[in-house]
Write a structure and sequence with these properties.
It comes from Actinomadura montaniterrae. This is NAD(P)H-binding protein. By secondary structure, this protein is of the alpha/beta class. It is built from 16 helices and 16 strands. A hairpin with a 5-residue loop joins strand 13 and strand 14. The relative contact order is 0.16. The mean pLDDT is 91.
């Protein structure tokens, strides 16, 4: 098995290389700069990685870089700016594709625009295998399965403010100004602007947290496999305010790589709450530490499963491509925990 990592010289790409090396999976590091790729491979302990040079503007070079790879893992964001050429090249090379995006608009575009091409090529495209979109989609599927017909489903990212990478800051800044979507009555619509001030129970905290509407990936992915009248997303109001205050200067001042102590101390938490028309409610939670490390683990495991186990060709959400409980169970070895129960 051979898996290519595009954006391997970046922070998340380096973590993906390290995870591939840890698991004994042959890695191909792809990017624009040979020196940076070599440094990243050394830092990741992946000195055996095959280094290949290909830029986003050269489709033929990208296809050739991916040609003998079973899957491509794309870590180069902001994906709305740089993701599409990698998807196209992976499909053209006959390679499965996963990425680590959390960008709502990009996710919707990939799922809609590349399904036919992926089916014709006989490959599977799974965007959004990161610490928010992956666990959020998986736990929402398990919650909805307890209810059957879902009237309202909320996907909430309830992590507190913490250290982020420059890549994450760039993605958030690139998405700033985009109106968060919600799924309502069979289609996507702008999330109501007057829904600030809502609160939600947070496990382990004495008081409810105030949340605000936000463009979470689950709003786009969950309606693909859950029949629901409404699907919406939210994050803590304080985190939404922080993202909204990002300027170009502030983004570029963010360290490329958060230090390991900050990563280990930061806890991520995805919650899904679903209710039916009678008011019966089911809640699911999935949480862990080191969001960036979790992203590398879930993205590598997703790519590995596509190669080893297969999935229907076309574009798929995480919960469509993989068994939700099984993949969440796999993350337990990396310190994650999850549960689903009546609220």
């Amino acid at each position: 098995m051979k898996i290519a990592v595009y954006g391997a010289s970046g922070f998340t790409g380096g973590l993906a290389l390290a995870e591939l090396s840890r698991r004994g999976i042959a890695a191909v590091a792809v990017g624009r700069d040979a020196e940076r790729l070599s440094e990243s491979a050394d830092r990741a302990g992946a000195q055996d990685a095959d280094l290949r040079i290909a830029g986003l503007a050269d489709h033929a070079a990208l296809v050739e870089a991916f040609r003998d790879c079973d899957a491509v893992l794309n870590c180069a964001g902001p994906f709305a700016l740089w993701g599409e050429p990698v998807v196209r090249a992976a499909i053209a090379a006959g390679s499965h594709y996963v990425d680590t995006t959390g960008e709502q608009g990009y996710l919707r575009h990939v799922l809609d625009a590349f399904d036919a091409d992926a089916r014709r090529a006989g490959v599977t495209v799974v965007p959004g295998l990161a610490d928010d979109g992956g666990p959020g989609d998986l736990i929402a599927a398990l919650v909805a399965a307890r209810l059957g017909d879902v009237d309202d489903l909320l996907v909430a990212d309830l992590r507190r403010p913490g250290a982020v990478s420059r890549g994450t800051a760039r993605s958030m800044a690139a998405a700033e100004g985009a109106v968060p979507l919600e799924y309502r009555d069979g289609g996507w619509a702008p999330a109501p602007a007057d829904e600030t001030g809502r609160t939600i129970v947070v496990p382990g905290e004495p008081d409810k947290a105030e949340v605000a509407s936000f463009a979470l990936p689950g709003v786009v992915t969950v309606p693909r496999h859950v029949r629901a009248r409404r699907v919406r997303g939210a994050i803590r109001a304080e985190v939404a305010a922080l993202f909204g205050s990002l300027s170009a200067e502030a983004v570029e001042s963010v360290p490329e790589r958060p230090d390991e102590a900050s990563r280990a101390a930061a806890r991520w938490l995805m919650v899904a709450e679903a209710s039916d028309r009678s008011g019966r409610t089911v809640r699911g939670e999935v949480t862990g530490t080191d969001a960036y490390g979790t992203t590398a683990v879930i993205a590598v495991e997703g790519a590995r499963r596509l190669v080893a186990d297969g999935a229907p060709a076309g574009t798929r959400t995480p919960a469509e491509a993989f068994d939700p409980a099984d993949l969440l169970g796999f993350l337990e070895a990396s310190g994650a925990s999850w549960r689903v129960e009546a609220a």
